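JOB MANIFEST
job_type = single_chain_structure
chain_count = 1
residues = 432
[input]
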Amino acid sequence: MLKEYAKYTSLNVLGMLGLSCYILADTFFVAKGLGSRGLAALNLAIPVYSFIHGTGLMLGMGGATRFSILKSQGAQKEKNRIFSQTAMLVFGFAVLFVLIGLSGARVLTHLLGADDAVFTMCRIYLKVLLLFSPAFLMNDFLLCFVRNDGAPQLAMAAMLGGSFSNIILDYIFIFPFQMGIFGAVLATGLAPIVSLGILSVFFIQKKNTFSLVKCSFSRNAAFKIASGGVPSLVGELSSGIIIIIFNAIMLSLRGNLGVAAYGVIANLSLVVIAVFTGIAQGIQPVVSKYYGAGEKGNCRIIYGYAVATVVVLSLFIYFGMSAGAGQVAAVFNSERNQQLQKMAVDGIRLYFTAVAFAGYNIVTAIYFTSTDQAKPGNLISLLRGFVLIVPLAVLMSWMFGLTGLWLAFPLAELLSAAVGAALYNRWESSLI
């Protein structure tokens, strides 16, 4: 069982780390090529990426969770219907995002708070990102189903292949081709297409046990798919919401330079969260399989492995980032701005005290939905993603300024973790 856990989680963590490099590579190359204004524009646009990616994960994880449970029960017709229903939802959201990209990019840029100094760069990034949304959604959707169909190695290879292509194209488009912010977002948009090309091997070789079937759209099936994937959506959305709220507060506290400093922390946070998301998504196929087979004791064991992994990794991540905060901030501070450097270093050391609590919340929320308990999983996700972080960020920044803003995120994750632990203990007690 430990071997199975290690196989799925290690491969998925590596893949998610690769996937998170979409934006991290943009941050590095934009900072080097376009300076603090480019970094600020990118940071204002990141929430839209989080929403697109979160929607893809919501549909993919929700559909794949139902698929795994049905697969363990031998329900072939039902699992094909779930795949087909999920595909319909992916298509619908893809059309919606493209329409927003074609007609609403300018309005969206205004809503995200871009001023005249960064407006054009931010608008370009948003428009191109939204036009590539069908590729992002399809990639997230198929990655989840291929992983749950017994091919975690291929899913990891696809995620890493897309990420490496993004890094290479980022450099080529921004520096030799001098394409600016358009080059950065074009590289990001092409990455999921590369990933889909790698995933196509699974279907060409006919290894898939699922396929599209003719069926009418079912609201009930759509609700089950979406509710099962809400923690994944909120996990991504929370990053975007936090960035939007923090950007707005930071603009009032320190202006565009403060937004650029927070941009360093926000992008590092995406990578850290990707590690924990990788663990959570890695246990999902295994937990769902055991749950579908009625082996609830094995579900608990897998969950215990995941929580222990989160604790160990959190210690390494926090102390490593805290000790190297100056060097990390300097990588993204191409203009050697001392104010930006100090804000970023202080922020890293305070903001990332949240890592263990954030990891526990992400794993616990996915564990609940993997065992067909959507409500507690969704509650944990909503608490950490919206209900707590927004008022805490406003209140603590008002009371303690920039220090309060940095500490709002750890406090929100800590309170959510307390609720999550209580819900888990209550659920476990009901099974005895």
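[summary]
The chain is about 90% helix and 0% strand.
The chain has a mean pLDDT of 87.
exit_status = 0
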